[in-house]
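Subject: design request, 390 residues
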């Protein structure tokens, strides 16, 4: 890694804090994930996205972020300030997860009571693809449904918002429990070469994550279980690691105070899950969804849906970012370190409002313990600094 330096740049941070830019995670390092030593920093906005206030039904919770040419498009399932408690699929765009624009409804619930739990992809040819949970099917169960778009505006041949239809539900051969399966919020579609991999659970056959494969993204053939676990799959990303091959990263939840992740080298055999994160307080006490935020081969963090009531109907979107750790040990021995973030690339350090703090600045890698640089430094309330290569 190139030598690093921290220097002050023009700008204003909130008084009583210092902002350090340039701290986002580097290329995916499976060694850190296998050790379970990861410096995830919660976004200072808690939540990062709240429901709109225009309607009286407010419950947003199922995020899926897709990298675009100039940032990301974040899809989520919600009652986003609407007059009725029917889940729909929404999206916003963002350059940096600081500001969000272009709010819109993408998929209406249509023939169903709910359409939610979106997992989104963009294919190499530019086509967009969503797999969502729709309820109820003809047997009163939750099932995955697929929606595609050549341009992100027209879905299944109709301009957004597209009303979900029964014919959008996927089919599956080789899994005799599929017709009566309850696949609620546990549908992940991963494009791979010329195929589509569906990772899913079934509440009527619980305790494992399964995989099925399709050539067209609509008609699937069942393969096998890929992970034994009493938790729900929400996202799977495929990451190429220079000199080490390909890794698959799975994120899971179970409507509790925890999130988990699991790694695989082939997409079929996942390692025992590790704890990813726990709730931070009452506002995110019940965690109901997770979506990775990826830029090229870098896992920058995750967005998660969570709420404060066990009925799971007052959720918001929260974020945590995988970052380098910045620490200042002051001349009097006081320790100041980044405990919050503003998006994936900015870290917030709380400092006294009324004086400069001089001491030794140390920057650690994304594991929070591997030292990358050390230097004398001064932090002033309201200042902005940047970590960069020399």
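Subject: RE: design request

Done. Sequence follows.
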């Amino acid at each position: 890694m190139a030598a690093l330096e921290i220097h002050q740049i023009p700008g204003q941070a909130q008084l009583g804090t210092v902002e350090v830019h340039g701290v986002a995670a580097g290329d995916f390092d499976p060694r850190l994930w296998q050790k379970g030593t990861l410096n995830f920093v919660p976004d200072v906005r808690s939540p990062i996205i709240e429901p709109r206030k225009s309607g009286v039904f407010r419950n947003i919770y199922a995020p899926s972020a897709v990298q675009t040419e100039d940032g990301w498009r974040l899809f989520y399932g919600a009652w986003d300030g609407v007059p009725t408690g029917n889940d729909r699929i929404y999206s916003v765009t963002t350059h940096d997860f600081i500001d969000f624009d272009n709010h819109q409804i993408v998929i209406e619930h249509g023939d169903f009571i709910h359409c939610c739990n979106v997992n989104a992809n963009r294919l190499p040819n530019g086509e967009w693809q969503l797999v969502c949970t729709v309820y109820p099917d003809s047997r009163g169960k939750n099932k995955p449904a697929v929606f595609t778009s050549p341009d992100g505006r027209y879905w299944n041949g109709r301009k957004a918002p597209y009303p979900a239809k029964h014919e959008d539900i996927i089919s599956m051969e080789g899994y005799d429990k599929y017709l009566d399966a309850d696949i609620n919020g546990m549908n992940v579609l991963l494009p791979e070469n010329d195929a589509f991999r569906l990772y899913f659970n079934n509440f009527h056959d619980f305790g494992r994550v399964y995989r099925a494969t399709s050539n067209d993204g609509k008609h699937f053939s069942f393969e096998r279980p890929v992970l034994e676990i009493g938790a729900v799959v929400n996202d799977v990303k495929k990451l190429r690691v220079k000199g080490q091959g390909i890794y698959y990263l799975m994120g899971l939840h179970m409507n509790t105070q925890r999130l988990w992740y699991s790694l695989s080298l082939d997409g079929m055999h996942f390692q025992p899950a590790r704890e990813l994160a726990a709730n931070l307080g009452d506002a995110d006490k019940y965690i109901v969804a997770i979506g990775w935020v990826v830029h090229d081969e870098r896992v920058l963090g995750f967005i998660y849906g969570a709420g404060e009531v066990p009925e799971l109907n007052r959720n918001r979107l929260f974020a945590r970012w995988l970052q380098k750790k910045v620490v200042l040990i002051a001349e009097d021995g006081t320790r100041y370190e980044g405990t919050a973030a503003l998006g994936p690339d900015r870290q917030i350090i709380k400092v006294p409002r009324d004086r400069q703090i001089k001491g030794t600045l140390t920057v650690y890698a994304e594991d929070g313990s591997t030292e990358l640089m050390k230097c004398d430094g001064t932090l002033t309330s309201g200042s902005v600094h940047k970590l960069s290569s020399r």
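The radius of gyration is 22 Å.
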